[in-house]
Structure to design on (646 residues):
């Protein structure tokens, strides 16, 4: 059990900077998810914590001890890889015991630790098999077992669910959550899947181009995204954006674009004051938009139906407003909306997000 | 409608080639014929070699109509001390060259596969340059070098050049094997308590065993069959089987029967090695 602290950690390959001065404090037993698109530096950050990549500058401390120059084996960590990385020439039992044998743990203790891990992960019947005789899900469990058998200070997960099919991935997500309760350990989990990030993380670190965009709990990120990138990355379907011009009129702000004319009370949206006379980006989550006329607390707009995606329990509707296309989720699946028909939609004022246009 | 379908079928047949246009039966027959022809092409010389080795000296030119067969040729060659010595030497050189070469090629291939930087790049360039030099061009300089080092006509004088050639040729193949092994396995080992060397030795190497076996067999066969280095770099002290075989051609004529008998004897270990590791050799040749 240990906290992990990154202070101004940077990684560059020649002139290319992969990770730009990341500072992050991960508390003891906290489960932190690094999420972002491919090439955002999340895996590099994880590999630097593991000691598989040298850091260009900054410090990494695990349990209060700076580990910058320590070998991976001396950092007391365990890691699960995307493709499991099981030792193909060893049985499952030997895979689990490998790390303990390297540390010269007595065989009796090894047997006890392996059996405990196998019991936790329900892989006891597989102990004599070779990795290639296992299914993807079973291999993933063995890889997890290899981590927990050593009882390390920190678990590192490098996109461990990416190679599994959708159904198995959902199941493994649940198993990971259960595992956390049984083996509470500081964990850092890298993924590009925002659903994994939202469901697993105590806190989420959103990264882009080697820079941390926002750190927060899943709900914080969902409700108060720091910028347009975080807003678009977190949440599914992703947030709608419309460029609008802000003008101040007495006690209201008018947000206007082609086919959009929203009136917002100035008292409630005082933060729009500095934006008056400029163009900003208005964000609305598809789940917060509903069909129908606006009520007191809403703002409304009209659009043309482009296409509907039927999901069985709901429809997701794409509508055109001026030059923009937005999506509305949670529509009654039985509601027939012909393509080209005009509709009226509304969104609660509490659910409007504003971003600078250049974010 | 049917006209359209037939046009489409013809177009498909044309695009997939002549072979797929044939009826399945004809296709199978053609394949069998081609396979038989290839088999004959490769096995007939061996068959003829064995036949010649079983004929008396007077009958080697009339193999096809003679009825007299003998194993005297084998008795005769095996009674010659030089042939026995050559068999032993060839075996020792082939085995030693294989062991030494594999030791270097495994580490060299691993470095080429896993590391970047000036040392692997220079090594890669060196190997590449040496591979570009025609094989024959090395022999004469090597003759002078072995003379200067006083290792001419010794095991070492033949071993070193063989190992050098193998390193150049097989490091590439070994790199290919290691490229096919997921490096995260080694990273996992490093996290599990191994050093970089430990991860190579305890995880990468055991995983590369099929590749190493294929290389070992190829390396052994290559040295066993090699003629040019053996001819130039050895003499009476260290006779090598391929050279001894060639010495049945002399000023008094060609002793085809004895040469064939020696060749058949030379075939046996090679055949055993190949049959033992056929699976691995095929895998190695694919890379």
């Amino acid at each position: 059990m240990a906290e992990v602290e990154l202070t101004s950690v940077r990684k560059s390959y020649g002139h290319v900077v992969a990770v730009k001065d990341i500072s992050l404090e991960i508390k003891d037993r906290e489960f932190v998810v690094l999420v972002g698109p491919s090439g955002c530096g999340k895996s590099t950050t994880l590999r630097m914590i593991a000691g598989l990549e040298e850091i260009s500058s900054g410090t990494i401390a695990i349990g209060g001890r700076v580990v910058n120059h320590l070998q991976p084996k001396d950092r007391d960590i365990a890691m699960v890889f995307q493709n499991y990385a099981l030792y193909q020439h060893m049985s499952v039992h030997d895979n689990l015991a490998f790390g303990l044998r390297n540390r010269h743990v007595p065989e009796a203790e090894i047997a006890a630790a392996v059996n405990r891990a196998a019991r936790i992960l329900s892989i006891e019947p597989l102990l004599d098999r070779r990795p290639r005789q296992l299914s993807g899900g079973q291999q993933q469990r063995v890889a997890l077992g290899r981590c927990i058998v050593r009882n390390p200070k920190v678990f590192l997960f490098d996109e461990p669910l990416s190679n599994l099919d959708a159904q198995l991935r959902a199941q493994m997500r649940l198993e990971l959550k259960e595992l956390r309760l049984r083996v509470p350990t500081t964990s850092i989990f890298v993924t590009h899947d925002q659903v994994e990030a939202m469901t697993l993380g105590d806190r989420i670190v959103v990264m882009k181009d080697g820079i941390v965009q926002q750190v927060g709990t899943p709900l914080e990120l969902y409700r108060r995204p720091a910028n347009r990138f975080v807003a678009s990355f977190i949440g599914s379907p992703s947030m709608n954006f419309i460029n609008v011009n802000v003008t101040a009129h007495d006690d209201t702000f008018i947000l206007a674009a082609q086919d959009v004319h929203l009136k917002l009370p100035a008292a409630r949206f005082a933060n729009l004051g500095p934006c008056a006379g400029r163009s900003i980006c208005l964000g609305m989550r598809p789940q917060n938009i509903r069909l129908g006329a606006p009520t007191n607390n809403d703002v409304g707009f009209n659009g043309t139906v482009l296409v509907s995606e039927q999901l069985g329990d709901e429809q997701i509707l794409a509508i055109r407003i001026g030059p923009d296309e937005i999506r509305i989720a949670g529509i009654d699946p039985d509601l027939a909306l012909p393509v080209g028909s005009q509709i009226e939609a509304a969104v609660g004022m509490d659910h409007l997000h504003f971003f600078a246009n250049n974010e | 409608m049917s006209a359209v379908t037939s046009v489409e079928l013809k177009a498909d047949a044309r695009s997939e080639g002549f072979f797929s246009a044939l009826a399945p039966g004809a296709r199978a027959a053609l394949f069998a014929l081609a396979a038989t022809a290839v088999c004959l092409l490769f096995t007939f010389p061996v068959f003829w070699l064995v036949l010649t080795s079983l004929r008396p000296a007077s009958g080697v030119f009339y193999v096809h109509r003679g009825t007299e067969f003998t194993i005297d040729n084998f008795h005769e060659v095996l009674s010659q001390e030089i042939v026995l010595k050559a068999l032993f030497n060839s075996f020792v050189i082939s085995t030693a060259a294989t062991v030494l070469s594999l030791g270097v090629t495994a580490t060299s291939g691993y470095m080429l596969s896993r590391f970047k930087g000036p040392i692997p790049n220079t090594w890669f360039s060196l190997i590449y340059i040496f591979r570009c030099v025609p094989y024959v061009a090395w022999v004469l300089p090597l003759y002078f070098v072995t003379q200067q080092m006083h290792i001419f006509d010794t095991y070492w004088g033949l071993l070193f050049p063989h190992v050098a050639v193998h390193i150049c040729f097989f490091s590439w193949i070994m790199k290919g094997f290691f490229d096919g092994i997921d490096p995260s396995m080694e990273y996992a080992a490093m996290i599990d308590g191994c050093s970089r060397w430990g991860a190579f030795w305890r995880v990468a190497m055991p995983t590369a065993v099929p590749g190493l076996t294929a290389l070992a067999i190829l390396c052994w066969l290559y040295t066993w069959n090699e003629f040019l280095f053996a001819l130039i770099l050895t003499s009476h002290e260290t006779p090598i089987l391929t050279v001894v075989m060639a010495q049945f051609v002399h000023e008094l004529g060609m002793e085809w029967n004895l040469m064939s008998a020696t060749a058949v004897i030379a075939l046996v270990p090679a055949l055993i090695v190949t049959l033992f590791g056929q699976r691995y050799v095929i895998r190695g040749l694919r890379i």
About this structure: Confidence is low (pLDDT under 50) at residues 1-11 of chain B. Chain B touches chain A at residues 182, 184-185, 187-195, 198, 203, 206-207, 209 (CB under 8 Å). The radius of gyration of chain B is 25 Å.
